[in-house]
Amino acid sequence: SVGPEVLLGEPPTCACDLWALGCLCHEALVGAPPFAAPTQFMLMDAVLAAADDPAAHPRARPDGMSEAGADLVAALLVQPPSARLGAEQAGRQPTSQHSCSLAPER
User: In a structure prediction context, what are the per-residue pLDDT tens digits for the chain, which is 106 residues long?
Assistant: First the structure.
């Protein structure tokens, strides 16, 4: 899925890839994309609504998703783009320090 900032006409950045990774993680964990709609326009609307309020879309945090999975997806599907997990320039924790990381401790 395209990041909401791109839908609003902002130039794409690496943070767009983090949004897309969040969508892929959601689909891998649940078996369905986080946003679905019968038309492209309605899909874009759903993405923008969830960007403003993550609870706005019923599939953003489905029942049955593990706490760690939900935490990972929520950390990637967040606005503003600079606050996404992995967007270290904004002072967020590096991905290797996230609770779901398998990276060895330093």
Answer: 888 999 999 988 888 999 999 999 999 988 888 888 999 999 998 888 877 776 665 555 677 788 888 888 888 888 888 888 888 664 445 555 555 555 555 4
Running DSSP on this structure, what letter comes out for residue 99?
T
| Backbone conformation region of residue 91, classed left if phi is above 0, alpha if psi is from -120 to 50, else beta | left
**Rounded CA separation 65/68 (Å):** 8
C-beta of residue 44 within 8 angstroms of C-beta of residue 72: no
Residue with tokens 């899909």: 43
